[in-house]
Amino acid sequence: MNINLAINEGSKILKKKFITNPLLDAEILMAKTINKDRNYILLNSSNSINKNDLNNFYKLIEQRSLGNPVAYLIKKKSFWKSEFFITKGALIPRPDTELVVENILRLTKQKSKINILDIGVGSGCIIVSILKERENFRGTGIDLSKKCLIISKKNAIAQKVSSRLKLYKSDVDKFNLGKYDLIVSNPPYIKTCKFKYLEKDVAEFEPRLALDGGLDGLSEIRKVIKKSSELIKKNGKLILEIGFDQKNKVKNLLKKEGFYIDSTQKDLADNDRCIISTKI
Ligand code: GLN
Question: What is the pLDDT of residues 258-276, one digit of tens each?
């Protein structure tokens, strides 16, 4: 069996199970199996593949056909300018969240030394990307999930920012350490009743803790805003990722806690996705 044939077989299996990008996924899983990059696979598609590798490849294809996301199967995901280590237990970094990073970098262009808090740090994709680009900034990340803290620590070490990132296992309500120039959060914001409409890959494999925003989708955002108003310095910035239909409600919550709304930003799909505010 050669690489090309195996990929085509794998792709057919995925297609039958209605996986959206069957060929691309099969190529990526083949690359993982033989420990090469996708370019190598495309350039060496007529090379033969040994029995052991073929077996492992089909195991990955089977996992993928059940909905297991590619990022969990290959244990990595590209985000902003780095490749992040990801395993089940951490939300897979989304392109939409790069909008949050982009805004923070824009807002902090002139700053030399600031202290940033990331509430619900997850894989660390936001805070690690920022610290990597701003070598004098310091960060703190909190998360309820021990597993996420292990993953974010690993990413901080891989991207060489770990000496500037403190990580704590804590509920947002109970965290009372420090004062911050900037606070960022991509909290869970999906309404519990909308779970049944999520893609199977997301609903069945990604951590509910990172997605479920309670009955109205705002229960965690409320806590984040309340806590941020206590921990943020005067004139500090709060940058939040929000659901596509939450802009007005979140604006009101922010105003109630003494924040001025600077702007809201749309994601690639033209949905309101990010709110920037200032503590006054
Ligand atoms: N944007 C994510 C999704 O649609 C949700 C992320 C979140 O709740 N913070 O899957």
Answer: 999 999 999 999 999 999 9
